[in-house]
Amino acid sequence: MKNLVILGGGYGGMRILHRLLPNNLPNDVQITLVDKNPYHCLKTEYYALAAGTISDHHIRVDFPEHGRLQHKYGEVLSVDRNSKQVIFAGGETLSYDDLIIGLGCEDKYHGVPGAQEYSYSIQTIDQSRRTYRKLNDLPAGAIVSIVGAGLSGVELASELRESRKDLKIKLFDRGKTILSMFPERLSRYVQGWFEDHGVEIINCANITKVEPNIVYNHDEAVHSDVIVWTAGIQPSRVVRELDVEKDAQGRVVLAPQHYVPDDSSVFVVGDCASLPHAPSAQLAEAQAEQIVLVLQKRWKNEPEPESFPQFKLKGILGSLGKKHGFGLLNEKPLMGRVPRLLKSGILWMYKFHNG
């Protein structure tokens, strides 16, 4: 029996499972899913969990069940490609015939002293829970500094404003305007929403150091009762330590079939893969579809696709609390209630379909 091992039950791993199960898995292949948690987590909603506007069970989806799907819960220490084994913390090993690495990303601290030690995170469900407890235990009038005004920082700041109107929220942004990668009209809309709702945006920020309850912007100390870091991501430690070619962001360079060029048994999906788009759940799912096609061809002893068409991503949606949002769909800016309703609908459909 061949063993297909999937490291990580994120968006890419879940899409692969749903495409292979229950009827598209050959009789001589079994799947072993490795994850720290016994459920799939909706990472795109961690900001709301941390802000306290949704409960934990709202962002959990059960993994599928199948007679030839095994679950292994634990922390992956490394991958030994020579022996084709996954090594776990504690020394236990798991052999594979084909391996799909979808371990996601971690915060990137850009070498800022104290950033990792003295800030909170929303990168994992465990970290988001800790951030929730810290934020919601704050007294009235406490200061929350959110470092990084990308999509995660913007959504966390806006959701926290609705959850805790008594808090003083500071959002530090490196750019001259917030969300500078979006069209100017959309950027101005988001900036205006924050101004109307009393969230202080600090543009052209440069965080040089973090100490307990202090974030230094251009070396100027800013008191903060809680500091949340949303200022960049990097591939997981296991991938960073993998001896393969990587791009400038540390993501694995892949063959067109999404496996390591010198090792066709190791695929990489999602945030750890070097792809021509910014990491996202949508991108991970699109890549997973192509990985499934490669595996099916391989199992049938048919030639693998030499190439794939470019990914067609539908766009991006962000929330500003529960009633407002923003986004780009087919390069068209959307602002107000419509993008927020669209995002809620997509989330509901995802949970309904996968659950």
TrEMBL record:
Annotated ranges, domain FAD/NAD(P)-binding: 3-283
Keywords of this entry: FAD, Flavoprotein, Oxidoreductase
Keyword Ubl conjugation among UniProt keywords: no
GO BP terms, alphabetized: aerobic electron transport chain
A molecular function GO annotation: NAD(P)H dehydrogenase (quinone) activity
Superkingdom: Bacteria
Cofactor(s), names only, from the UniProt record: FAD
Homology family: Belongs to the NADH dehydrogenase family.
Protein name (database record): NAD(P)/FAD-dependent oxidoreductase
